[in-house]
Amino acid sequence: MADSLAKALAAEHAAVYAYGVIGAKTAGKLRVRATTSFDAHRARRDQLRMLITQQGAKPAEPSPTYQLPFEVTRPSDAVRLAVLVEQRLVTAYLELAADEDASVRRVAALAAQECATRAYGWQPAVTAFPGMPGQTASPAQPDGTGEATEETTDGTGETSATTETIDPTPIASEPSAPQ
Amino acid sequence: MEHTTRGHLTRRALLGTTVSGLIVSGCSSLSSGPAAPKPVDPQVVLLRSLIAAKEQMIQLYQRGALSEDVPAAALAPFQERHAAHLAAFRKLLPPDATAAPSPAVTPSPAPTSAVSVKKLRDAERKAAAGRPAQMAQASPALSQLLASVGACEAVHVMALGGLRG
């Protein structure tokens, strides 16, 4: 099984967990958006599981809990987390886009587009090369707030052996950013 | 042998000339003609088509800037991102391939007529939708680049929808 496929699945597991938190901290239209995103990520997770199984491997199960990169107490925190999750997923899918199998590449391309547009839906900022390292987003609208800044604060304080970071997508073969 | 009828070439004469011409040209190419051109790398062919399409997209935005739908300044960031994509594609072309553009790369005339934001959105949507098929033929590095470019184009569809027009 391709390592990038396992990484994409791990990222989707983390996204499903994160959207559970995001949904709990939002209401109204934001809650609806969170629920829709939650369902979309579950569907992609199941698709990745199927692809891994078809390759004769066993898909990894999700961790019981995940360590969030910052404390999520307000709706604005939830939005920031949603943007971060989607951006990280775009990167995971860019890595998967180098897979030898054209059908896997197709999944990666479509999923990357979906994640990028969902990130924009949460926070309207655009980069020329979504998912590539070193990208600086520009607000798409005058009142846009720009790219979410990544925090490393561990709001949960949990260090359990069964706790995974919400960012399980360290990029081993990281796509190189065009100069 | 009679090859003409009232001053016109007969079909037999025409066919005979054509066949003998093919035979002669075939023999000459085998014996003393120039060597067959080196086959073009499929990645170069793909890159040239990507470059041509990006150039057309940028020209479309130049025409969009002539529209009264939205201020030209609002479209400038979109055009800049496409220019960044174009530069990234060009950078992947081998040095010896840049001097021989395909006919599709031939620049079009300067933009004269305006296009609507709707047309720009349609072009972005079409470009994003075409990326998976292009990725199937691409090298791993180009495939990753195309996935990212496609994601940007998909976001452009949404962002253009937020512009008045």
Characteristics of this structure?
heterodimer, A: 179 residues, mainly alpha, Ferritin, 4 strands, 51% helix, B: 165 residues, 2 domains, two-stranded antiparallel sheet, 5 helices, 2 strands, 65% helix, 2% strand, elongated, disordered N terminus
Low-confidence stretches of chain B: 1-31
Q: Could you list the spans of chain A in which at least 5 consecutive residues all have pLDDT below 50?
A: 141-162, 168-174
Q: State the major sheet of chain A.
A: 2 strands, parallel
Shape of chain B: elongated
Q: What spatial form of chain A do the alpha-carbon principal axes imply?
A: globular
The chain-level mean pLDDT of chain B equals 80
**CATH fold name of the largest domain in chain B:** Ferritin
Provide a quick synopsis of the model.
Chain A is mainly α and 179 residues long.
What does this structure look like?
The complex is a heterodimer of chains A (179) and B (165). Helices cover 51% and strands 6% of the residues of chain A. The termini of chain A are far apart. Chain A contains 4 helices and 4 strands; from the N terminus they run ααβααβββ. Chain A is mainly alpha-helical and 179 residues long. Chain A has a two-stranded parallel sheet. A two-stranded antiparallel sheet of chain A has the order 2-3. Chain A has one domain: Ferritin (Up-down Bundle). The model of chain A is unreliable at 141-162 and 168-174 (pLDDT under 50). With 165 residues, chain B is mostly helical. Chain B folds into 2 domains: 1-32; 42-161, Ferritin, core subunit, four-helix bundle (Ferritin). Chain B has 5 helices and 2 strands, in the order ββααααα. Chain B has helices at residues 11-31, 42-64, 72-92, 117-137, 140-161; strands at residues 4-5, 8-9. A two-stranded antiparallel ribbon of chain B has the order 1-2. In chain B, a hairpin with a 2-residue loop joins β1 and β2 (8-9). The radius of gyration of chain B is 24 Å and the shape is elongated. The relative contact order of chain B is 0.13. The model of chain B is unreliable at 1-31 (pLDDT under 50). The interface between A and B is medium-sized, with 35 and 32 residues. Chain A: Residues 154-165 have a biased composition (Low complexity). Chain A: This is DUF4439 domain-containing protein. Chain A: InterPro entries: DUF4439, Ferritin-like, Ferritin-like_SF. Chain A: Residues 5-133 form the DUF4439 domain. Chain A: Residues 130-179 are annotated as: Disordered.
